[in-house]
Design goal:
2 copies of one chain form a homodimer. Chain A has 358 residues and is α/β, with parallel strands linked by helices. Chain A folds into 3 domains: 161 residues, NAD(P)-binding Rossmann-like Domain (Rossmann fold, 3-Layer(aba) Sandwich), CATH 3.40.50; 101 residues, Orthogonal Bundle (6-phosphogluconate dehydrogenase C-terminal fold), CATH 1.10.3660.10; 71 residues, Alpha-Beta Plaits, CATH 3.30.70.260. In chain A, 45% of the residues lie in helices and 15% in strands. The first copy, chain A, has 12 helices and 12 strands. Chain A has a 5-stranded parallel β-sheet with strand order 3-2-1-4-5, sandwiched between helices. Chain A has a 4-stranded antiparallel β-sheet with strand order 10-11-9-12. Chain A has a 3-stranded mixed β-sheet with strand order 6-7-8. In chain A, helix 3 links the parallel strand 4 and strand 5. Chain A starts with 9 loop residues before the first strand and ends with a strand. At the A-B interface, strand 8, helix 6, helix 7, helix 8 and helix 9 of A face strand 8, helix 6, helix 7, helix 8 and helix 9 of B.
């Protein structure tokens, strides 16, 4: 008896990080999960971790989740649709339109296919990194396409909900454009910026701003070459618009006395302001609604606990926080973001308790 | 009697955020501080906050700190050198070579001048935002130039140390190149990226990676137009190298079958990895040496305190942390970074206490 929404059994194809994590989460809910993978060793490992049982003859899954690399996703989805003529099939690849196109070209039964994309992952892949919780509170794109049956759409959405993800319906092309914008382009921009630092002098002046901007530049090259290659046309569109604006900034900086040069710089920063404001904040509110304060703490165990204890005593909820480093210093800086209405109280209460603000 | 290194009195020219903060910190140490500003109201406000006394006839400062906007810094430094022929003069402008050039062209007495740049600031300017602590544990560039006397260099370094900053000696040109790289270019890149989001669809898919990359794009346009304009040639050098690599990435994505296209993408991400690794981490260690884990917490006051209490009980020091948002979800994700040697213990101890890892 399952405690989730999904009824019937689920077949997971590909026992890597995502497949194993799905298996773990569904098994916890009491859903019968069978696992298969090109590598039997992967299946054994995922089964050992408790992600389900090995797939066998006579399995009759109502839902099949294809969790294989992007370059073999379409062919795998097609084979599963053929081998299990009454099952609904989804996949979790990070690009959606090319897969749908490939399936359509191969005359696959698209009434039973709904692509999806859980916006979740971990730095390390593989079954051993699988966790039942990686989807919790993350967006899970349901790639709507006109030929899919209502039943197929509903079943894939139930999967997302059972895994505590937030289903977001988008067409395959809308999805690919959105991830080019919010994920693939930022990765490339961050990498291109970080590459300037190689062998450069003065990096000891780097502050938190640079560190935040290049954090994702630490990502895995092998994985990203595949992701970028699969969504190349949509990424090119975004990069070209950025390239054009970058050219205008360079031109402005090369001759500041030229009419419009300062306006170009101003507009660049203003447009950036507007872009940040357009991001949804916590619980749908806007990032810019928070007030931020920087508290200094000593660099030993227990200091953060003491700080958050005292904030808790005062009954103030911290909406966001960040720990800053200072190379060589035995002091830490904690940036606390709170609702503006409690900002003054936060400062006065913490100051009264001896905390120093930077 | 002062408790710091600086002996003699200090004259602060410009009672804005930085000038007032310097006055507050030095006054706390018992140093006699006199303040002047083009606006008498600014002086009154800074004096009211406790940053010193109004400058008067017969003042005989041993050190003068010029804290006025970049475009009037050189002329102010020159006037101070002339009016106080036995004082050492420094400034805090965010660009150093153009100011030195202007002073040299005006035949100012460069033996008594050492430029500097405290890498500190707050989102809001003005005397009212001044805090004695804003320089603590931040780099403070001492811009070395051959004509400066040893006494001048020492006095400015003592100022930085008294304010608990970390003095970093660089030539003016080295400084300007370094800030173009670690501050000015990241600002523009972040702004240019964030500008793509204006009016775009699918921003609800944005994750922490994008949020980090565009965080500084929320900066003040007015301030930044002046900063960028003052260091334009050095910024152009960095932006052009980025522009060239961006062009290569676009070319690769436009035709992935072209020889070398995939290698270009791979090299872009690899170089980004190397750039991030070249940043100094906390206490001089490297960022990549930490292990990161994501813990789920409920979204109510006290949850963070409970988490950090229990981490403190276990005696583990958190090296870095970050709170992630999930739009619409009543759950928070805290990313904890710890030394790899205590990672397993962190997970097992927190799991035993009922915490869930994502």
């Amino acid at each position: 008896m399952t405690t989730g929404r999904l009824q019937g059994s689920v077949r997971v194809v590909g026992a890597g990080l995502i497949g194993t994590s799905i298996g773990l989460a569904l098994t916890k809910l009491g859903v019968a999960v069978s696992l298969t993978d090109a590598s039997p060793a992967n299946v054994s490992l995922a089964v050992d971790y408790g992600a389900g049982v090995p797939a066998g003859e006579g399995d009759n899954p109502s839902l099949i989740v294809v969790c294989v690399p992007p370059d073999v996703t379409a062919v795998t989805v097609r084979r599963e649709l053929e081998n299990f003529p009454s099952a609904i099939v989804t996949d979790v690849a990070s690009v959606k339109a090319p897969i749908l196109d490939e399936l359509a070209a191969a005359a696959a039964d698209l009434t039973r296919y709904v692509g999806s994309h859980p916006m979740a992952g971990r730095e390390k892949g593989g079954a051993a990194s699988g966790r039942a919780d990686i989807f919790v509170a993350r967006p899970w794109v349901i790639a709507t396409q006109p030929q899919a049956s209502a039943e197929a759409l509903q079943l894939v959405e139930q999967l997302a909900l059972d895994l505590e993800a937030i289903p977001v319906r988008l067409s395959p092309l809308e999805h690919d454009r959105a991830v080019a914008l919010v994920s693939h382009t930022p990765q490339l921009v961050s990498s291109l910026l970080a590459a300037r630092l190689v062998g450069a002098n003065g990096v000891e002046l780097a502050g938190q701003g640079l560190r935040d901007t290049v954090r994702i530049a630490a990502s895995d090259p092998k994985l990203w070459v595949q992701i970028l290659g699969a969504n190349a046309p949509e990424i090119v569109t975004v990069l070209k618009s950025l390239e054009s604006d970058l050219g205008a900034v360079i031109e402005a900086l090369e001759d500041l006395s030229k009419p419009g040069a300062l306006a170009t710089l101003d507009q660049t920063i203003v447009n950036g302001n507007r872009g940040v404001e357009s991001l949804p904040g916590k619980h749908g509110s806007r990032i810019s609604q928070y007030s931020s304060f920087v508290v200094m703490i000593g660099d030993q165990p227990g200091e953060l606990a003491r700080l958050f204890n005292e904030i808790g005593e005062v009954g103030i909820n911290v909406e966001d926080l960040k720990l800053e480093h200072s190379p060589g210093a035995q002091i830490g800086l904690v940036e606390l973001s709170v609702l503006p209405s409690v900002g003054d109280r936060l400062v006065s209460e913490l100051t009264a308790r001896g905390w120093r603000f930077a």
